[in-house]
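Troubleshooting: if your tokenizer reports a length mismatch, compare against these two reference records.
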Amino acid sequence: MTQYLYESASFKGLLVSQSVSSDLINIALDRVEGFAFEKFAQDFFSVLDGRKFQPLGGVCDGGADGVYRTERETTYYQITRQENHREKIRKTIERLREFGRDVNSLIYVTARSIPHIDKEEDELTDKYNIRIRIRDRRYISSHINDAAGTIHAFNEYLEPYTRFLLSLQSQGDKFITSPHVKDPSAFVFLQHELSQKSGDTKLIHSLADTMILWALSETDPDKGILMTKQDICKKIFEHFPWVEKVLKVHIQPRLDFLRGQSKEERRIRWYKKQQSYCLPHETRTAIATESAQDESLRLKVLDELRLIASNIFDSDDGDYDILANSALNVVNMIFEKQGLLFSHFISSKADSEPPLVVADCIDDVLTNLCSSKDSVKTEQFRECLESMMREVFYNSTPSVRQYLNNLSRTYVLLFSLQAEPRVVEFFSNMSANFRLFLGSDILVKAISERYLEPEDQAARNLLKIAVKSGIELYLSECVLEEIYTHMKATYWEFHNHFKEMEQYMKREIVRNSDKILIRSYFYAREEGKVKSWKSYIEQFVSFDALAKDTGLDEIRRYLVSEYRLKFIPNLELESVCNNAKVQTLATRMIDEGIKEHQSLAYNTALQIHGVYGMRNKHGEVSGVSELGYRTWWMTNQTRVLKITNEIVAEHGTEYTMRPEFLLNFIALSPSCDAVRNSFKNIFPTVFGIQLGHRLKNDVFHGVLDKVNTWRDYEEGRITALMSQMCDDLKTNRVKHYDNNLS
């Protein structure tokens, strides 16, 4: 199976995506050489620590590889991938002192993992009377995606040490399986999405209502504290950026619903003069009652955790408070890192193991908590937390079980709305893996959006985000000719039917034109953004060149430059196609009335067979990736689909990708960092628990039941199913999306 993964270059998406996979970081740090790691770390900390960090030259600078100076102290950096960190730190301190350095603080940077860092730091600090801090592999991994600069440092110095993954066939028994196959998140999400022909409207409305009421929680009519719709949207989307894609089009309708037609229906109050909203007293009371119940449960769980801690660890109340809250933080972190497996474990009646990340989560919580505590206390806390988590998992009280179940429901709600880090990373990796031929409908629409406001440029924004995501966008010669033919036809239609009557044209008449560029011209002229048809056309091609039929290459240059496309000539597509099959399909298009001209029919047939040919050329058919096929024709043109069923059956999958797939799952998707931050904003709060109440039982159990399906399969079967589900989702034309390109 791994052979297929590598032959299909499925890991390339991981290598070029905006965020870096933790698996790739570990692989790179395990293989990186000393000099490359030193250069990486200097660039990495230049970004993290800012302008006060200064790279140094190692031996000639007394063994230091960097320095950070403030008015209070000077901190030196030692960067290495060598073993024996204690000995290396000792020698570095001695060397710096030999060079006359006044050393009062040292940061030791290593490509290795150092166990019990807090204990090591404390012991070394006491031994040398210097403040020692260790930044190991886990620290680098947790901060690699903090900024564009840290990602650039990885791509510049570490990424070359992962390129063997793209060509590796096998190394004895060392096969590498995609992390998306080893975790059920992406598998279950794909199944869930394919089972939904449209979004869960009731869930989305309930979520929107909850978010609106939360946003209005600090309003007070007596104090004149009101919020406009814009204020409400800003507050919601800044705190929970993942919901913008889901809720943006629903906010106004739900505001209208919540303000009601009668006093009995009214949950929010509307002030027409101020165009603003606030919460009435009765809504405040209802929210307070629900919040009190959830907060009471949380406090009860904390009391029970304190009791568990007191039975394990002999200390004072202050430590029991710390341990109880730390246990809840561990739970929250597990949901962030392996939430689906954790939710399944909580709800499962059969014996099963908790997620593997529990120990790592305990370490992370202790690292944040005990940086200033002595190492003995830290080890005591670690042992106590491990015992407490075992009690929580296997001997929990009804209150703890209810609390965990509430959090599980919140997690599954976020999961079903794509607000889950592993799911976001999966689609991010997929996007960087794409080779997409653009349909003429997409590019003509992008041209027509020239004078729209930036937020309304749906096609242009989609293409920009696609490029930023690492997608390879192709303009084939056959599509270029179709675009050029469309523009010539538009030119002559305007010349023959609109030119003489231009000054009398009203919007009601213009909107009946079937030429989108004519409509967009008149709308732009009406708004004073363009003066004449000639000046409009010359935004894309010389007016005279279009009139004289000499503007084809000029259009090509514009499209390639403006939208960052790669031009693919027909000769390249013809070299990977069976010409007889192309001609047969072209003839059938003419016979069926799908195309009127032989040249356009040939171009469309060549594009269809070219997609399959390019898949073969790039080895996509010889292997299998859980991300599905890479090469597609992205278009909303559907007329030709009805006569290509036999071709699709021959190749086993379709050739067109629906643009709405890219729009909804990639272009409008939040970043992994935004989703992780949302987890941190939601899970520790009563509001997070309240979100879970909005999830229907059938959705909750349906998602978790799919984990059992994943568990039953071998990795090879999971990979094959994920590949098929990805391609089915890309081509699904029945599914309804709130966000559409049209």
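Reference record two:
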Amino acid sequence: MSDAIATDHLPASRAASADVPQVDADTPVRVRFCPSPTGTPHVGLIRTALFNWGWARHTGGTLVFRIEDTDAKRDSEESFLQLVEAMTWLGIDWDEGVQVGGPHEPYRQSQRKDIYADVIDKLKDGGYIYPSYSTPEETEARHRAAGRDPKLGYDGFDRDLTAEQIAAFEAEGRVPVWRVRMPDEDITFTDMVRGEITFKAGSVPDFVVVRGDGSALYTLVNPVDDALMGITHVLRGEDLLSSTPRQIALYRALYAVGVAAYMPEFGHLPYVMGQGNKKLSKRDPQANLFHHRDNGFIREGLLNYLALLGWSLSADEDIFTPEQFVEHFDVHKVLANPARFDEKKAVAINGTHIRMLDEDDFRGRLLPYLQAAGLMAQEPTDREKEILAAAAPLVQERVQLLGEAVDMLAFLFTADADIATAEGAMKGMPADLGAAVSAAREALDALPEDGFTTEAIEQALRAALIDGLELKPRQAFGPVRVAVTGKKVSPPLFESLEILGKASALARLDRFAAEQGL
């Protein structure tokens, strides 16, 4: 049991004055991203990080990255490292916080218990929190007796306990929690996203900030950290909007005891919705940021799309670079309406950003995907590098995700004998397939090794198949395409044949002829 409360010096509980300095246009911007390290990085969570980063960079302010790791059962170091990986990959850097340090260390809640204990003592001494002995069952019983809904929550019974009542509860061995007294008046604030919002007096019950064992709850430590770290703008998810009146009441108390210097501005970002207008669940693959990265999103494309989940550069402009985002981002222009994660649109935007890359950059980003598929060695051979350099431009204009290029280019890194004809690839072939394959082989074989170029290949095949056999282009080149790639659709045929080289092209035509019994 905890030490009995000495009541002779305990001030009467009170709500703090609403007269707290406000952040203004001249206050240097300090924002924070403070996730709990649980699970994999959710796109909605990373969108919150992005908007905080964008506001800090746009205003020349400071981004603080701290970790709320007080839930030992759910928090994990693996999840923390994944958050760092996700932010680093997207290019979201931070000025203070975990891994980089700063003037307000430590930046993990689990390492700040002494700080919270000191603040708790200040709040107790000032009378801004009060001991509450009521059990949930007693509170429900009082509601029933008064004809109220028993689920209304705490009823303020312990607000004004006398010293004798406290002594009696202590004598029973009860251990109190500690609550903040909500003001008996409306709480109004101007949300940076939603405008003026009012919570009516009595709509938010007095809330617990200290457990019976004396440890601080999240309801206390989050605003305390914000206050001590000088956070000026609290940008967070819409789900936390209902907690704002509690935090405003607590901030008033923190200001009164010298912990807070001012009241921050609050902005609540819209929900990210999935299919069917439901909140994007952690169980939905689309919610996992790494799902998109692994499928072939590039950082510029995904950052662009995440920024569109509540904000836009202009009514008719969806494509912008990270630099343009920083230049134009204004949290006051974020929309309050829920934003739907449209993967089809995200993929299209990513494709545009892929086409904006220079060739060397695109090639470098493609390499890990080809290596992961086993098409290129971890230490690529000279021949593999040569193929990639020649082939990358052929797919850069055609892919929307880097992962799509793996399937498109696989035939170039596959041994001639291992090319397999895909199901459905033979549909639409010319009636005399044997003649077409034979004519194509003869035309290519007639070209010299050093003259096996895209232009020469195209001229030779057109002369043999279109002029000679009078085939339409699709029927003329279809057999050659399937023979050398195994597929009905591939990167440009003539360029692909040049990359493969004469010997490989002929070998693949021979393999195809044998496979088809020609």
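Descriptive notes for reference record two:
- Residues 1-10 have pLDDT under 50 and may be disordered.
- The CA atoms of residues 408 and 490 lie 6 Å apart.
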